[in-house]
Design goal:
Layout: E1 10-11, E2 16-17, E3 21-23, H1 36-49, E4 54-56, H2 81-91, E5 97-102, E6 115-116, E7 130-131, H3 134-153, E8 158-163, H4 168-173, H5 188-191, H6 193-206, E9 211-219, H7 228-241, E10 245-250, H8 270-276, E11 284-286, H9 293-301, E12 307-310, H10 313-316, H11 320-325, H12 343-346, E13 376-380, H13 384-395, E14 399-403, H14 413-416, H15 425-439, E15 442-444, H16 451-455, E16 461-464, E17 468-470, E18 483-485, H17 486-490, E19 499-503, H18 507-518, H19 527-534, E20 558-562, H20 578-587, E21 591-593, E22 596-602, E23 605-610, E24 613-617, E25 621-624, E26 628-630, H21 635-639, E27 645-647, H22 659-672
Parallel strand pairs: 3-4, 3-12, 4-5, 5-8, 6-7, 8-9, 9-10, 10-11, 11-12, 13-14, 13-16, 14-15, 16-27, 18-25, 19-20, 19-25, 20-21
Antiparallel strand pairs: 1-2, 17-26, 22-23, 23-24
Helix pairs in contact: 1-2, 3-6, 13-15, 13-22, 18-20
Length: 673
């Protein structure tokens, strides 16, 4: 059997899981929407149908003060049980178990009613928490037990207690956020009384036939975090208190080390879980950046963990497990760890979805039903928008011919995947390529769709997905053979010196700075070097697992990042990943300049002004990263054919390279054409 270890059953004693795959907790935003639980049930049902062994829901608060946001979801009263039953009933149509995660935000609660062990404000939250009284601590423990009992009535198979990522329980455990002098603070044993009391209270309330998962922070990645001896000791106490499974938690939300972004190496933290093996007898779950069945199988087969947790991979493809079972991993729509449509949405109070799968969390709204009037469609351009539309339209029964002028599919993704830390974009190109073969879309490479080609065949409609072209910048000297577009650099068409000026400090500029500095030596593909770059202690002998970083060497190359705006460079980068990109360019010594006026480029360098003061940047080359323009060269000619013409992706709106918008627009059009 393919992926034998990953897909083997796991006996928990009180019940058995059909495989070793846990769909990790993700808050979707549906929890707070009107009729959201109906949509949530459809979301989870697709994943259960897709074969996952155990699902953990997004975080549900045990009380009002523990909510993530003022309108956050909680389970505290019997009348709230009914909506949860929709979810459990949908999941239990299949051989899948589901646990509700209980999450008290503590000082991360984004509202003025939040509470914490001590009155210490989180650096990522404007609201200062109030310190919990002894009575409030005890009441909160009862709230956890009550919420667990209600979840059992709702049909859940268990609960996951969120004890990591810097939320309330983690705040009690660590001296960083707990300076209490009562029974709930002081030495490590006292600081652990809160989580242990919660587990004991839950077990007493729900009985023995109920799964209790504890998400244990094994690597805090913050100052004054736990050391390894403390992690081991707490794990042993938790086992004695009655937990069924221990899940791995990595990093606090306020940590300045990336833990799940695409630049993080695959399975970058499974070694942490492995260190706990043998210390406890309950099953252990490895997590973070496990996104293919091959990686997951290796984690289990090598003995690093008993289960693997994958969250966002199930946004990307609900059929992940079934495809692995059928030995069809090449057909899995792989999570690329971009965060753009999932975490960025959630932290902006929007519904979560997925860049590579816009149906995620929209299962009741985006569907590709068979068309009553199948058409023959010509699609121009095999970038993300063109490929996605072709597959969706084919699913509806249309005959699709996909034209691509170049020798390969991928469009802008072929450039993006060359950026260090964005190698995962390879997977999306692989997925689309394999699905095009499997679904019968006719792909014509090295073939531009022109009016002459159209005259030889019959089509009903034309879909233009011709993408973008680099925006030209009109400055004296920018027509020099020492000035290149970002596309020319990534395509290997540029001869660059060691001193380079990048015009534009948006996403493209930051990507180019990263590309030029690492010069093909991506730390994302080298775990040891990546850990050194970010200062992660592989021995966890230091508190929080932190050591002094050793930034990757960037040789003699000096890069300048310039923008006309006076705002902070990279201000428009992703909400949850922008800080990573800014950190990387800082590590490489990139010099940023804002409020720049460009005068000319000549043999002496780039002549600019900042705040009215003229300066000369002695650079060898200029690379234009100032955005892009829609590639509409053939639009008029297509419209003159008399056929309906639709524009999707960059040819429609040439904003910052936006695959999220392009693929979703492709889905929307395919639904209606």
């Amino acid at each position: 059997m393919a992926f034998e270890k990953l897909l083997s059953p796991l006996d928990l004693g009180l019940t058995q899981l059909s495989n070793r795959v846990l769909m990790g907790s993700m808050h979707t935003g549906l929890e707070e929407e009107k009729n959201g639980f109906e949509k949530l049930a459809a979301f989870y049902e697709e994943r259960a149908k897709g074969g996952v062994g155990l699902i953990v829901t997004g975080g549900i608060s045990p009380n009002f003060r523990g909510r993530l946001a003022p309108n956050g979801c909680q389970l505290s009263f019997p009348w709230q049980v009914k909506k949860h039953k929709q979810v459990t009933a949908a999941v239990h149509k299949y051989d899948t178990k589901i646990c509700m995660q209980i999450l008290h935000a503590g000082r991360y609660g984004y509202h003025p009613f939040n509470q914490a062990p001590s009155k210490i404000k989180a650096p990522i939250n404007p609201f200062t928490p109030s310190a919990m009284s002894d009575r409030q601590v005890k009441a909160t423990i009862k709230d956890y037990a009550n919420s667990s009992a209600l979840s059992k009535k709702a049909g859940y198979d268990g609960v996951e207690i969120m004890g990591s990522e810097g939320y309330l329980i983690n705040q009690f455990i660590c001296a960083r956020t707990n300076n209490r002098a009562d029974a709930w603070g002081g030495n490590f044993e006292k600081r652990c009384q809160f989580p242990l009391s919660i587990v004991k209270a839950i077990r007493e309330k729900v009985g023995k036939d109920f799964i209790i998962i504890f998400r244990l922070s094994m690597l805090d990645l913050v100052d004054k975090g736990s050391n390894w001896d403390e992690v081991v000791q707490l794990a042993k106490w938790l086992e004695a208190a009655g937990v069924t499974i221990i899940n791995t938690g990595i990093g606090w939300h306020e940590a300045r080390i990336p833990t799940i972004a695409t630049s993080v190496p695959r399975a970058a933290f499974s070694w942490v879980t492995e260190r706990l093996k043998g210390e406890v007898s309950v099953p252990l779950v490895a997590t973070n950046r496990i996104n293919t069945p091959e990686v997951a199988e290796q984690v289990i087969a090598s003995g690093q963990a008993d289960m693997v947790s994958m969250a966002r991979p199930f946004l990307a493809d609900p059929e992940f497990v079934n495809k692995a079972q059928a030995d069809q991993s090449q057909l899995i729509n792989t999570c690329i760890g971009c965060n753009q449509a999932c975490l960025d949405h959630v932290f902006s109070q929007k519904r979560s979805t997925c860049l590579v799968n816009p149906r995620a969390c929209y299962e009741t709204e985006i569907n590709f039903v068979k068309s009553d009037t199948p058409k023959r469609l010509a699609v121009m351009g095999a970038g993300p928008a063109g490929m996605a539309f072709s597959l969706y339209a084919r699913e509806r029964g249309h005959e699709v011919v996909l034209f691509e002028a170049k020798a390969e599919v991928g469009g802008q993704f072929n450039l993006a995947r060359k950026i260090p830390g964005k190698e995962e974009f390879d997977e999306t190109i692989r997925y689309f390529t394999e699905q095009i073969k499997a679904t019968g879309v006719e792909l014509r490479l090295n073939t531009a769709l022109t009016p002459e080609v159209l005259a030889q065949e019959t089509f009903d409609e034309i879909i233009m997905a011709t993408g973008v072209l680099p925006r030209k910048v009109e400055v004296e000297g920018f027509d020099s053979d020492k000035v290149y577009s970002y596309q020319q650099v990534l395509q290997g068409e540029a001869e660059l010196g060691d001193r380079i000026a990048l015009i534009g400090a948006g996403g493209i500029g930051f990507d180019m700075a990263h590309f030029l500095c690492e010069q093909g030596q991506s730390s994302s593909l080298n775990l040891e070097r990546w850990r050194k770059q970010w200062g992660i202690d592989a021995t966890i002998s230091e508190r929080g697992g932190l050591i002094e970083p050793e930034p990757a060497p960037h040789g003699q190359r000096q890069v300048h990042l310039l923008q006309r705006k006076t705002s902070k460079p990279g201000k428009g980068l992703g909400k949850t990943t922008g800080w990573i990109h800014r950190s990387v360019v800082k590590q490489h010594g990139v010099k940023a300049h804002v409020g720049v006026s460009y005068h000319k480029f000549d043999d002496n360098g780039l002549h600019i002004s900042i705040d009215g003061t003229e300066q000369l940047l002695e650079v060898d080359n200029v690379v234009l990263c100032a955005g892009q323009e829609s590639n509409r060269d053939l639009q008029q000619a297509m419209e003159q054919t008399g056929l309906p013409v639709h524009l999707i992706g960059g040819v429609d709106v040439a904003a910052e390279v936006d695959a999220k918008r392009a693929i979703r627009q492709a889905a929307t059009l395919a639904m209606t054409i």
